[in-house]
Design brief:
kinase, alpha/beta, UDP-N-acetylmuramoyl-L-alanine:D-glutamate ligase, PfkB_dom, Carbohydrate kinase family protein, single chain, 13 strands, four-stranded mixed β-sheet, about 300 residues, about 30% helix
């Protein structure tokens, strides 16, 4: 089952636990430091591959050491990284994440080459050949907000490709602008804050229904420990979260999307697919980084038994 993960590619450096940034040149010893592929496209691509999907990553990264490392991580996890373009004038997008003991994750971030992604870097034939195209972070790859790209998405959908979308930031201007993609999306999966910005509705159920009016067939709004709210065919259902010991929330949204997409390509309905997404997110929350704990599909489905 082929999935194209298109959009934001970020290299994350995570340290845990970090209670405070030390003063001066003091050193704090932490339990663990990891480097992972992250971002709403790259993080989802790795999770998809771990769950048994054939995945191609499409995006823009720098022609630098960070980019080399990101490609190596993607490739090692079974993701086809040949869809990535290398930019000599921009660095690879990266984040440093000091993870608090309670799982909170402040960040230091460089947007980098993600801001340079345009329709010229995207092969329309690749979109048309995919079972699913996942738009990961179109709010930060806003060069794709272009009629040429929308035409390519429309053509792919007409040929049977499903399009899913998740956002990366909570910056109001960027999130609101990403609403232009909604008419070309089948399933949209924002978090509660993003859904509120896009619709003006603070209530997740109302926000999910409002998103349906803008084009998608399904809207899934994630609400953290409260689980998620799914609207489809004008009806709303709540999917409860799975009670786990939360270590780090980095990548939970990416994992949710990966589980959801995996359900779709295996013929599950959207409600069962959302349950698969819930299980994937719960798995990742128990470890450090956007791919923590993800081994294979049977392991996450065991959480639903």
């Amino acid at each position: 089952m082929a999935v194209v993960a298109l959009g934001a590619h970020i290299l994350d450096v995570l340290a845990r636990p970090v209670e405070a940034i030390p003063a001066g040149q003091d050193t704090v010893v932490v339990d663990r430091i990891r480097v992972t592929a992250a971002g709403a496209a790259a993080g989802t691509a790795v999770a998809l591959a771990r769950l048994g999907n054939e995945v191609v990553s499409v995006g823009a990264i720098g022609d630098d050491d960070l980019g080399d490392l990101l490609v190596a991580i993607l490739t090692r996890n079974g993701v086809d990284a040949t869809g990535l373009v290398r930019r000599t004038g921009d660095q690879t997008s990266a984040s440093i994440l000091p993870i608090r003991p309670d799982g909170g994750r402040p960040s230091f971030h460089v947007p980098g080459a993600n801001l340079t992604l345009t329709p010229a870097a995207v092969d329309p034939g690749l979109l048309a050949a995919a079972d699913v195209v996942h738009l990961g972070g179109p709010d930060v790859t806003f060069g794709l907000n272009d009629p040429a790209f929308f035409e390519a998405l429309a053509a792919a959908r007409a040929g049977g490709t499903a399009v899913t979308m998740d956002l990366l930031s909570n910056l109001p201007d960027l999130v609101a602008a990403a609403g232009a993609f909604l008419p070309y999306v089948d399933h949209v999966l924002p978090n509660e804050e993003q859904a509120a910005i896009m619709t003006g509705e603070d209530d997740p159920e109302k926000a999910a229904l409002a998103l349906l009016e803008r084009g998608p067939r399904t809207a899934v709004v994630t609400v953290g420990a409260a689980g998620s709210v799914m609207a489809t065919d004008g009806a709303v259902r709540r999917i409860p979260a799975i009670d786990v010991n939360v270590v780090d929330t980095t990548g939970c949204g990416d994992a949710y999307c990966a589980g959801f997409i995996t359900g779709l390509v295996r013929g599950e309905d959207v409600h069962e697919s959302a349950r698969w997404g819930t299980a994937a997110a719960a798995t990742v929350a128990q470890g450090l980084g956007s791919d923590a704990g993800l081994t294979d599909l049977p392991a996450i489905l065991a959480l639903l038994d």
